[in-house]
Design brief:
The protein is mainly beta and 339 residues long. 0% of the residues lie in helices and 50% in strands. It contains no helices and 15 strands. Strands 4-5-6-7-8-9-10-11-12-13-14-15 form a twelve-stranded antiparallel β-barrel. A hairpin with a 7-residue loop joins strand 14 and strand 15.
């Protein structure tokens, strides 16, 4: 485990979001210490993917965004809960199980299953196959572009209208017709991500989804996340070398906070000229627990009456495999900073 020597305390930093995001800030410790004191990074390390910081070497950067790829041999598993609160209808509850595997040469493959509960109905809604490819090793191309492709197979039925929030009586005496099957769809994304000054971590996803049958629903949009690490300090073990009389402290980076937002535009074959547009924004917090587990929470709020009232995301994930040095098809890691 490498030892990094730098002042014990951190400076207060103010992070300014780009594009749609407004402002986010996170307090860091500030002060001075004696030159003889060391900080030893003793947190359990995660592997780097092709030279990327470990923050970007995981399948999901935040509940809304993905960034870069996994190292070869790594496996990422997650359970995602989403609660959509929308005007004029009951909340929509979604549970998604996701497993992604890192392959050599900056390639990942994944499967995803979505379970939905709405208005008393519980169903297995969709099953997806995913793949992503990073165009180059980390920092060889500005913003580290990564291509994402997904094919989604419909299993259940469409339980509510996918357009703008609409009162139930607008659908007639029987309400919305729930007998229509969910059509298959494909989705393409461009993933961009960067680490600025070792203090600000940013990811932006543009996406386009097209249904292949039914009313041929189409959705496109932009999701963006910006977080900053909050370092927590703990006392480390006594030095094993009796000649080393310098005190040390263990640095464990286990909490990140920031802001994220998403713009979405949806239309079907009958409403191409008048799409349903929505925008949500809110805070996001990620806590890295022991043994490579992580918990992300993002409550996002709509900005107008056409947007959801709230979208709550809770993601529990576990990362294993892909040990240090597993860099097939890429260069050696350039950073070992933990997330």
């Amino acid at each position: 485990m490498p030892t990094l020597t730098f002042p014990l305390s951190k400076r207060l930093s103010l992070a300014i979001a780009a594009a749609f995001v407004l402002l986010t800030a996170a307090p860091l410790l500030d002060g001075q210490v004696e030159a003889s004191q060391n900080i030893e990074v003793t947190a359990e390390p995660l592997p780097s993917a092709y030279g990327a910081p470990t923050s970007f070497s995981q399948s999901r950067f935040s509940p809304l965004t993905n960034a870069y790829v996994l190292p070869p041999g790594a496996v990422y598993a997650s359970l995602i809960y989403e609660d959509d609160v929308v005007h004029f209808r009951n909340p929509d509850h979604l549970w998604t199980q996701e497993v992604e595997v890192g392959l050599p040469y900056r390639i990942n493959v994944a499967i995803e299953n979505n379970i939905q509960r709405y208005d008393g109905d519980l169903q297995d809604a969709t099953f997806s196959f995913e793949a992503r490819y990073a165009l180059a090793d980390w920092d060889k191309i500005p913003l580290n572009p990564t291509i994402f492709a997904e094919y989604k197979t419909g299993i259940g039925d469409i339980l509510h209208d996918e357009g703008a929030p609409t009162p139930a009586h607008k659908f007639g005496p029987g309400g919305f017709d729930k007998s229509t099957e969910i059509p298959d769809a494909y989705e393409l994304r461009l993933l961009l991500s960067e680490d600025f000054f070792d203090r600000i971590e940013w990811a932006l996803n543009t996406f386009f989804e097209q249904e292949t049958a039914g009313d041929r629903g189409r959705e496109w949009g932009i999701a963006q996340s910006l977080v900053t690490p909050i370092h927590l300090f703990h006392e480390g073990p006594a030095p094993t070398d009796t000649k080393d009389m310098q005190p040390s402290a263990a640095l464990l980076e286990e909490l990140k906070a920031g802001i994220e937002c998403q713009f979405r535009s949806f239309s079907d074959k009958g409403s191409r000229g008048t799409p349903y547009n929505s925008f949500v924004i809110g805070p996001t917090v990620a806590w890295r627990m022991p043994h490579n587990a992580r918990l992300d929470i993002s409550p996002l709020f709509g900005v107008n009456h056409k947007s959801p009232v709230m979208e709550l995301f809770v993601v529990f994930s576990y990362y294993f495999g892909g040990g240090p040095g597993a860099e097939a098809g890429g260069e050696a890691p350039a950073s070992t900073r933990n997330r």
